[in-house]
Automatic annotation (TrEMBL):
Stated name of the protein: Quercetin dioxygenase-like cupin family protein
Sugar 3,4-ketoisomerase QdtA cupin domain: residues covered: 4-118
Domain of life per record: Bacteria
One matching Pfam family: FdtA
The organism of origin for this protein: Rhodoferax saidenbachensis
Amino acid sequence: MTHFTVLNLPTFSEPRGSLTVLESALPFAVVRTYWIYGADGQTRGGHRHRYTRQALVALNGKVTIHMNDGITNEDVVLNQPSQCLLVEPKDWHTMKFEEGSVLLVMSSHPYDRSEYIDTPYE
């Protein structure tokens, strides 16, 4: 069990493959979508936001997200494309990528460098 919100997205599996549905699952409208790949063994992130909310899905491989909301420090492992971690603005986060991992990120706001907070909680 995690302190942070991990959604188990509806997934339909059959012999021909699996289909995971994101429709209506997120508590915010997505205005920016991007994915991170080729980051084998790297740690990325290292910030929180003033107002942007995010949803993270490891489409392939394993990504360990270190989360800190100022009270709780916890590692959340994403290794199934049916898992979606919600990252709230207060959540300081870093993302450690295993080989071959692809991380899909959906954001509530467009990119704005001025709303990033780079100083971690003490």
